[in-house]
What does this fold into?
Amino acid sequence: MSSMSSVAGLSKYITTLPKTKYSILGMLIISFLIGAIYFILDPTMGTMDIDNIAIGGLFGLMVFGLSSIMSGALNQQVISILNGINLKIKHSMFLSALSMTLLGLIIITGGILSRLFNLDLFLNSLLFGCVLIYGFNTLVFWATANVRFSKAVTTALIQPTLILSLYVLVAFLFTDTSFIGPLILQFIIKALVAGIIFVLAIYAFIKIIASPFNKNLGIGVLDLISLFIAHMNEGSNSLEGLFENMSEPIDTIVTLVSFKNENGIKALFISPSVHPGPLGNLGGSNMPTILANKFDHFTMVAHGPSTHDFNPIATTEIDKIENSVKKCLEDIEYDEKASKFIRYTSEKAHIGVQFFNKGMVILSTFAPSGSDDIEFGVGLTMMAQSRSKKPRSIPFN
It folds into this structure.
């Protein structure tokens, strides 16, 4: 399960996104600044007076801000209709704000180049930026929303289409309209060619990257990432369904020590050779608490010899450990004596040993330093060797 450990490492990059109102406010401010800055840089604007700056800000607000806010609302609705996951309204608005900011940086860069070389690169900058955010949105929807590529491609069209449409509308209303026909034709041809090339490149790249993962584990890497995000954001356990494709059945052992008095069982010490993983609340990640809560007695659950290869694929697998413990309690033998608890130390390793009847408990720790999992085979070897030792027992209270 080392692949799951790698995916779990992505959790450190997950952060809380801003509320919807902050994303909308940010889009309004940033879009105004984009338009104002470009009008300052554009050599065709003439003098840089307050009127031109204000007009440029309003232009940016209408073309970039309003279209991005609308796309934020529409993207969430479309993904929801397509049965996608992870895309709440605040996620959609933040994605639109991020895409608009990226587009604005490209347009401002085009404005700087226009100023330096005395050219008008606005349309080319706008088209290039729209194609870029189209590819970016496609990748985000495909990788995180758990939808097919064709649906991601269609949804990603919303924001660049709205931006270009509003630009044409504003240009039609406030400037010379004689160029609108050729402009629309250029938009369609350039946008189609660039968009198709860009999206096909993304598709080919992801397929090449994901092919070894899918071949070896039988699952899609994008499915894994999207369901992982759903688990981290919403606590969804849908990821457990994918574990079956990469899992194998195993035989392991469950050991325990039971303490009782005249009133019955007093406490249980359980050590299953099952790994508490892989992450969050998936599989057996919360196994010690879940297993302890299944018994009415005071119960401690230790980490037995096992690695991530022994992660349960679902929380229901813990029921098998519970059944094994209950079956063992029916046949367990009790004794009034136990050996002394003896500690051994070698460098950073600390070992504690105590015999109970015919059984033996071995505890190991490297505290306060960290330690790795003990392989199942190593644990079996220790158990086999411990059977040859005979302790001196004393009365146990």
About this structure: The mean pLDDT is 84. The beta strands are 254-261, 264-272, 298-301, 337-338, 342-346, 349-356, 359-365, 394-395.
